[in-house]
Amino acid sequence: MLEFRVLLVLTAFLFAPKPSLARAPYALRISCGARDDVYTSPTNTHWYKDFAYTGGIPANGTVPSYISPPLKTLRHFPLSEGTENCYNIKKVPRGHYLVRIFFGLLAEPSFDNEPLFDVSIEGTLVYSLPSGWSNRDDERAYVEGLIFLKDGTSTLCFHSTGHGDPAILSIEILQIDNRAYYFGGGYGQGTILRTDRRLNCGAEKPKYGADYSADRWGGDRFWNSLPTFGENSDKILSTTKSIKQSSQPPNFYPEALYQNALISTDTQLDLMYTMEVEPTRNYSIWLHFAEIDPSVTEAGQRVFDVLINGDLAFRDVDIVSMSGGINSALVLNKTYAVSGRSLTITLHPTKGNHTLICAIELLELVLAESKTLPAEIEALQKLKGALGLPLRLGWNGDPCVPEQHPWSGVDCQYNRSISKHVIDGLILDNQGLRGFLPNDISHLRHLQSINLSGNSISGGISSSLGSIPRLEILDLSFNSFNGSIPESLGQLTSLRILDLNGNSLSGKVPAALGGRLLHGASFNFTDNSGLCGIPGLATCGPHLSVGAKIGIGLASLVALVLIATCLTCWWKRRQNILRAQRIASRAAPYAKARTHFNRDVQMARHQSQEHAKTAAENGPSLLA
Ligand SMILES: *[C@@H]1O[C@H](CO)[C@@H](O)[C@H](O)[C@H]1NC(C)=O
Ligand SMILES: *[C@@H]1O[C@H](CO)[C@@H](O)[C@H](O)[C@H]1NC(C)=O
Ligand SMILES: *[C@@H]1O[C@H](CO)[C@@H](O)[C@H](O)[C@H]1NC(C)=O
Ligand SMILES: *[C@@H]1O[C@H](CO)[C@@H](O)[C@H](O)[C@H]1NC(C)=O
Ligand SMILES: *[C@@H]1O[C@H](CO)[C@@H](O)[C@H](O)[C@H]1NC(C)=O
Ligand SMILES: *[C@@H]1O[C@H](CO)[C@@H](O)[C@H](O)[C@H]1NC(C)=O
Ligand SMILES: *[C@@H]1O[C@H](CO)[C@@H](O)[C@H](O)[C@H]1NC(C)=O
Ligand SMILES: *[C@@H]1O[C@H](CO)[C@@H](O)[C@H](O)[C@H]1NC(C)=O
């Protein structure tokens, strides 16, 4: 049995702000729950008001973390409205984007619970809020994914997991370079990079890209500060000199990122930093260096190895020679599969005594889910309209993904040959559905079972159902279907269970269905207004086609005309006879006389013959 899940939709048609410069990246920021546009300091960032959305409740929020944008409102989604909530943002140009969602807490004393829920971007589950996120002053208060958008929309969904109402503070969709964070094989549409953390080593406080006056193609990244690796093993190094090779495509790292660093001290020559990670995931690790130590003046003076969890990742890194000089940025990236819960980066000097590092980025590689076949999504949308699906069922975004949160009432299957999810079951029994069953249901080509039992669906049974090749179970019982069972259902060679009981169907059950019963299928046609034609049901009257009916009608008409004509003739003839008789009886003396006369004559002749005989015996006759 499919677990019933209630959905709620949140749909909007937001229009992209027109870029003023040809090179300016697309940028959309929404302040959730806001009734007016908001501008936040210190960079006067423009947040669009949250209009044209339906569902959820705008409310005042508290900002749990200093890293959140200073927004005062949020939108939250009470469980009573369903467990699946999406923002569908339309008209987003095709491209590569940084999508970021901040979470908030409801500013109401009665709601002091920290909500825990799942977040998906474009159908891929990217984040499950960890408990304690609202108490931590770090990246746990938002989720960010780097993703390619190609169909003009961006769908962001929040999935309740039964731990409080999802509450969303803001949504940002910021275009970045098409090759941003290119890490080699596997890069592209099949992968979403979820930002786990960005750390600016030696920085005193966290900053956004905007605070660093970074290039807008950098996606206004948030850089948390890492003032020390701990254990008194390092010290902060900083410079005001300009940094070459910063703000370069594809990543446009801000110059300020390289103007401070952590450098190892004499007590501990290795620099070592351990981060907590999710086990058995793949991470893309980005390390940033610049030789800002004035005591190093040329290549060969500082050379070190980089190890990730003890595995050699980069051998003999020489910042000066690799970046092309002092005060010049060097970026190294490595993809690494972690098995445990920690990830340790070690910089081990091989030449010279100290090592240094400017920034660390950790991004999780998330395989993008394969979406549902578009034709089937479209068919489900038509069905949603035709059946008047209640709001609580939602049905928005992708029906099958994330796999952990499919649409309620929809069973999915991954089809390897087309690399898409397809719908193989539609289980919407007892959902208070009304309306009718549209022909579009047959576009769900991969359906194997349909259960719409116990609703109030009316109208005829769509004959297109007969063209769903592998339909095995069709339960339309206890609805208000009328008309006859379409002949096409006889083409469903895989049909095992057909429940049409409890409707207002009439007419003959297709003979092909009757035949199927012999092969162990289970059909139920009881409680209808008048079905006939198979054992157990009434026998049907002669079944005639329309043509035959017209034929019979015409023949009957001709017969009627013929009978009428005959009757008229007979009647007329009879009238003539009667009239003749009447005339005869009036002027009859003559006719009658004649008759009599003839008879008389005959009699006479007879008599005369006898007479003659007599005469011959007795003498000559008197008559001539
Ligand atoms: C939000 O707070 C403002 C005052 O800051 C208040 O006027 C408004 O009614 C509050 N809105 C809600 C939904 O509580
Ligand atoms: C990341 O590393 C890969 C493989 O080492 C390299 O091909 C790619 O160019 C690097 N990416 C960037 C943006 O430097
Ligand atoms: C990590 O990457 C390897 C090699 O690309 C792949 O086989 C594996 O499935 C990935 N693991 C996860 C959890 O994505
Ligand atoms: C390493 O450190 C020692 C002592 O601090 C110093 O004498 C030596 O010159 C350093 N070596 C290099 C290559 O900087
Ligand atoms: C996958 O889809 C194709 C095309 O619709 C279909 O022919 C095939 O039978 C499907 N395979 C499975 C296992 O459902
Ligand atoms: C369809 O749903 C009804 C109501 O839940 C259930 O009784 C019936 O067994 C289902 N039909 C099939 C064929 O499973
Ligand atoms: C079926 O019912 C609808 C109203 O629900 C009516 O318009 C239609 O004529 C009926 N069809 C038949 C074949 O009785
Ligand atoms: C058919 O459905 C009726 C209810 O409409 C039920 O009483 C009957 O038991 C069913 N027959 C079979 C064979 O399942």
Automatic annotation (TrEMBL):
Subcellular location per UniProt equals: Membrane
Leader sequence segment: 1-22
Q: What InterPro entries does the record point to?
A: Leu-rich_rpt, LRR_dom_sf, Malectin-like_Carb-bd_dom
Q: What's in the keyword line of the UniProt record?
A: Membrane, Signal, Transmembrane, Transmembrane helix
One Pfam family of this protein, by short name? Malectin_like
The Malectin-like domain sits at 30-362
Kindly give the membrane topology term recorded for this protein.
Answer: Single-pass membrane protein
Task: Spell out the Gene3D superfamilies in the cross-references.
Answer: Galactose-binding lectin, Ribonuclease Inhibitor
Locations of Basic and acidic residues compositional bias? 601-614
> Is Membrane set as a keyword in this record?
yes
In residue numbers, the region (Disordered) covers 601-624
Q: What is its main location?
A: membrane
Q: List membrane-spanning regions.
A: 550-571
**One GO term of the cellular component aspect?**
membrane
Q: What is this protein called?
A: Malectin-like domain-containing protein
